[in-house]
Amino acid sequence: MEFSIKSGSTEKQRAACVVIGVFETRKLSSPGEILDKASDGFISGLLRHGDMEGKAGTTLLLHKVPGTFCERVLLVGLGKEKGFHEKEFRDAIATATRTLNDCGAFDAFLTLTELAVKKRDISWRVRQATLMASETLYRFDRYKTKKEEVRRPLRKITLSAEHRADLPVANTALNQGLSIAAGMNLAKNLGNLPGNVCTPTYLAEQALELGKEHGLKVEVLERTEMEKLGMGSLLSVARGSHQPPKFIVLRYEGGKAEERPVVLVGKGITFDTGGISLKPGAEMDEMKYDMSGAASVLGTLKAIALMALPANVVGLIPTVENMPGGNASRPGDIVTSMSGQTIEILNTDAEGRLILCDALTYAERFKPACVIDIATLTGACVIALGHVASGLVANHDGLARELLEAGQAAYDRAWQLPLWSDYQEQLKSPFADMANIGGRAAGTITAACFLSRYAEKYHWAHLDIAGTAWKSGEKKGSTGRPVPLLTHFLLARNNALVE
Ligand code: BES
Ligand code: MN
Ligand code: ZN
Prior knowledge:
CATH superfamily of the largest domain: Zn peptidases
Structural class: alpha/beta
Shape: elongated
Largest sheet: 9 strands, mixed
Bound molecules: ligand BES, manganese (II) ion, zinc ion
Low-confidence stretches: none
CATH class of the largest domain: Alpha Beta
CATH topology of the largest domain: Aminopeptidase
Number of domains: 2
């Protein structure tokens, strides 16, 4: 899909389809009013006759509207004007894109980006419109031998800006939106791949590929190197699998040499059976998404490389398959992590923290400005926050605030949970320095407490994306989250979010 920005003169557009918004009940948006005037009241006449009320989610496609140069006009219902906020804006873009793609138009002029959204400027609207359009058009049909046919797929979307003076800012936002969308698509593709394809070796190959494409430095540590580093915790998870573990290090060097990097650590369990503490069978296929944290790190690096962000960012991906087997870890086994701390593995299904803790220790060598780990870590997080917000736990309030704000700006929200020392007690073990589980109560927090013990030397935040990285059910699939949050966080740190 090709995107561009233009300003003004809705009535003069020669596009195959011009899209205008209609509020409930029957009130045209201002570009709509301009078009209506040009058509001598043709559109408002239809509305008066009750052809459309403007309810959210509804559309009306018109052909050859008099006084216009375009082939079609698509009216998109926006719901009540008073309640038209961020979600409603995004929904309207999705409805418009879906309808355009089905209506046979080759290119479209979308005026919805001129609509007022409370507290959000043109740059937000353009970024979000780009993201939603790309989200709506995303398909994963790599394994369909017969692809779904689209008659004449939409090729070009032009977003409108009200004022000429908005064009520079809008074009920057468009570039950001497209870069984030490309990063999300990478994350979605990797997430949607089945476990028999997307193995640790495959992820490592993809990382090397990404590096070649965007000039990142990529290094893949093999089992023997991890042994030398003393990553006994990470390696214990790999024992049951025939797939060799990998530790991927990516470096994006867009900033000054002396600038400390942001380190992103992504959980890369390419399939989580639970190991000897085997998971129940229902929906176990979804555990192919257990590498979504890793995918979001690769996606974020792709996004910032595409926009040439002047920042230093390191990506660390410990990647392992968690399988049962004759050589697998047993409940009760004690392992020594790279930090020297010992862990009693009471449940082999709490494997994410076992690979992340060694990656967090490894992160120290980069003298990080901060470290953020991203992981589909706990089912408890899905119970607490559902599929709306990612869980956030941090050892530094300023960092937590930055991430919460980035999530708001990106419409990829997170919600903070406490890291009070009272919760640490649940991790006590009589035999080792800590247990790898803390009981049923506050499962998301105790998982974060475990990680915090490996993140004491720097500012650290943890995003639990168990509920947000993928959708279940009929429309199941990876969401590409939290690539938008992470990218907005890095953009904001570089004052590159024009708000
Ligand atoms: N990958 C899972 C977490 C998960 C579960 C994500 C369901 C999304 C949906 C993780 O490795 C896991 O199994 N966690 C356990 C931890 C428990 C044994 C302390 C869990 O949440 O049940
Ligand atoms: Mn598990
Ligand atoms: Zn897992």
